[in-house]
Structure formats: structure tokens, C-alpha cells
Amino acid sequence: MKKAALILALLMTFVLIFTGCGNKSDAEPTDANSNGTEQALEYEGEILMVHSGAGLSKAMDDIGQAFEKKYGATINFNYAGCAQLLSQMEINKIGDVFVGGSLNDMNIATEKGFTDQYVEVAYHIPAIAVPKGNPAGITSLEDMAKPDVKLILGDEKTNAIGKKGAKIFEKNNITEAINANVIARDATVNEIITQIAMKQGDAGLVWEDNGVNAKDIEIIPIPEEQNVIDKVPVCVLSFTEKQELAQIFVDFICSEEGKAILVEHGFETI
């Protein structure tokens, strides 16, 4: 009987041990502190202001979201024509990062002392935009120069695609004919796209990447020998008060992760 009692006691001990293990929560903290709460990201609560050309907004929005998910910092974008952005920065000296629509934008930023170095991250390739269905039958730059074609172009003084367009038309000796066909000049490439989509013009000049996932416009490539291809530069601004975080964001744009997002939006990265 003593032996039986001893065996029974041992069995009860094992039952208690396994019962205790069974009551332990199956959910183990992941990426966690000992109390099971999620671990804060390194720059949680920090905010960066990024000045960016309006035509880059879709790609930059996605890059900003990916950066916030990875580092915790919020990116507030200021989108506008680059000439307007440069004027704002000159007056206010506010912001952390600048993403230009062309190398000319960054050259101006450098001359004004907004930065002393920048990185070229992607090619910015001009292209012809026409309304869905291409009712005017535009297939080339030469077609844009034909009489009675209604063109919507960028402002030659305030945005990158307007300045680039002027060089392209000059290169192909069609400036006079193009100027005769212009019915509107817009401050940003996004405004050009909206007007073309609404069939307010027969064609316009935009960037190739603007055609990605666009429902109401079609993109017609310009042959390389006729084109004037630019690059998208990015820099940390000299007047930032968040030098370290601003540099991390620039590095993120230029990383494989950042470039993959640019490729998704139709850019050819450098």
C-alpha cells in the first residue's frame, strides 16, 4: 500500500507540472519587450519635411510609407513645381530633404547654398501624353508640330518638364511650330495630365513614369536620339535640424528597397 501511495503521489506531481505548463500562454511576444508590448521603432514620433517635385508624388508617397513602417518617422511631403519649391526654401529656410525633378533644379539649390552634395537616383524621361484613344492620332514630336494640334505643356520657367520640353523642341527644330499650337501652360506636370485626361488638348509633354497605372491617358515614347533625358536628384538640405534622420531618408531612397518602389512606378533607376 505504501508503494501504491508513493506511485499515486508521483503521478499527481506530474499532472500538476503539466497542468501548469498547459496554462502558460501560447502567445509569445514577437519584436517585443518582456511585457509583450511592441518595441518602439528607432525614430518613432520624429517628422521630416521633404520638398519634392509634384510629378514624383505617387512614388514618393509610397517611399514615405515604407520608410515610416521601417523607422517610425513620419514624412510630410511638400509637392509643387520645383521653381516654386526653390523660392519657398529661399524665403523660409525650412525643410530637411529636397527631391528635384531635374539636375537643373539641384544645380540651382547648390548655387543658393541649400546643399553641397546630392545623389542621382533615377532617370527622368520625357514622353508625349495623349488622351485615351489618341483621337488626334499623335505618334511623334513631328505630329505635335502639325497645324491645329492643341498642346498643353509645362511652364518653361517654373517646372522641370516645361524647361525640358523647350530643349527637346529646340533640338528637333520645331520650337516655332510647337509654340503656335500651345493652348495652355501649367505649373506642374500633374496639371498637364489632368487636362489631357479630360481631353482639353490633343497632346502634352510629361514624364514616362506618369503613364504607369494611368487610366485616361496614353504615353508615346520619344526616340532617344530626339529626347533630352534628365535625372532625379535628392539631397539633405543645409538648413535641416535633423541631419542624421534626413540622411537616413536619402539613403533609403537610394537603397534597393527605395529603388524597387521607383521601378514599380515606371522609373529606370541609376
Structure, described:
There is one protein chain. This protein has ten helices and eleven strands. The protein has 270 residues and is of the alpha/beta class. It folds into two domains: 47-122 and 231-269, D-Maltodextrin-Binding Protein, domain 2; 126-221, Periplasmic binding protein-like II (D-Maltodextrin-Binding Protein, domain 2). The strands form two sheets. A six-stranded mixed sheet has the order 2-1-3-10-4-11. A five-stranded mixed sheet has the order 7-6-8-5-9. Helix 2 (57-71) runs antiparallel to helix 10 (256-264). The chain is elongated and about 60 Å long.
Helix content: 40-55%
**Could you name the ranges where pLDDT drops below 50 across 5 or more consecutive residues?**
14-38
CATH class of the largest domain: Alpha Beta
CATH fold annotation of the largest domain: D-Maltodextrin-Binding Protein, domain 2
Radius of gyration: 28 Å
Instruction: Sketch the topology as an H/E string, one letter per element.
Output: HEHEHEHEEHEHHEHEEEHHE
Question: What topology emerges from the helices and strands here?
Answer:
Layout: H1 2-23, E1 47-53, H2 57-71, E2 74-80, H3 82-92, E3 97-99, H4 103-111, E4 119-124, E5 126-131, H5 141-144, E6 151-154, H6 160-171, H7 175-181, E7 182-186, H8 189-197, E8 203-207, E9 217-221, E10 230-236, H9 243-254, H10 256-264, E11 268-269
Parallel strand pairs: 1-2, 1-3, 6-7, 6-8
Antiparallel strand pairs: 3-10, 4-10, 4-11, 5-8, 5-9
